[in-house]
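TASK: fixed-backbone design
INPUT:
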């Protein structure tokens, strides 16, 4: 679970997103970051029992920086108003599919994962693997466990092509998944979840449910 003070820090930051306020509240940020890092360590410890590939990761190396890159953004707020961790075999900068959770009070928290904004060479590999192994892929995303928690992969704006990619027929039974440019699934975490003693358990369960998909995607990427 997270401490209420951690969530309060993020709420206060959202109202005071400027360097002067942040510098005055540096101690509160350090405490909140330490709390979130410990949560990440507990998730790694719990999920690492089922996924040895991530068991050796350190929570501090999975966290994203709180500073925003504002160089090409119209939004010039200097700080993110969330904490997030990416738990991936090989570390946060790995090009493999992996697991992710995002903490942002106000109903914007979630956990899940996959492979986001895939580069051209990986797009080709993943699409080919889905096409060649459609029955296996379908069995993963339509399993009772996956469907009950995630429903389906996300297919919103910016996550899929409008038309089928070159070389694939629109009648292909897998075409809706071949058209994707990101293969991700997420489940919401409520504000009540964030301070619940079951938080780690919920995140670990979401990762375990996603594990067959992550392994399928990484098989495609590696081979």
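OUTPUT:
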């Amino acid at each position: 679970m997270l401490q209420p003070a951690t969530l309060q820090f993020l709420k206060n930051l959202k109202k005071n997103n400027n360097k002067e306020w942040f510098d005055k509240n540096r101690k509160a940020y350090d405490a909140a970051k330490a709390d979130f890092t410990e949560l990440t360590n507990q998730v790694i410890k719990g999920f690492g029992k089922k996924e040895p590939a991530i068991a050796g990761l350190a929570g501090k190396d999975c966290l994203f920086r709180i500073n925003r890159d504002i160089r090409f953004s119209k939004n010039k707020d200097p700080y993110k108003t969330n904490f997030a961790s990416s738990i991936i075999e090989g570390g946060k900068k790995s090009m493999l599919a992996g697991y992710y959770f995002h903490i942002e009070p106000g109903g914007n928290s979630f956990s899940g994962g996959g492979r986001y904004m895939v580069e051209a060479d990986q797009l080709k590999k993943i699409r080919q693997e889905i096409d060649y192994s459609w029955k296996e892929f379908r069995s993963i995303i339509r399993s009772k466990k996956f469907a009950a928690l995630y429903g389906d992969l996300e297919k919103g704006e910016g996550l899929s092509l409008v038309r089928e990619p070159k070389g694939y027929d629109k009648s292909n039974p897998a075409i809706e998944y071949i058209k994707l440019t990101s293969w991700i699934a997420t489940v919401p975490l409520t504000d009540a979840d964030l301070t619940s003693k079951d938080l780690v358990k919920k995140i670990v369960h979401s990762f375990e449910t996603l594990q067959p998909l992550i392994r399928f995607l990484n098989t495609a990427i590696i081979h």
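COMMENT: The first strand starts at residue 83 and ends at 87.
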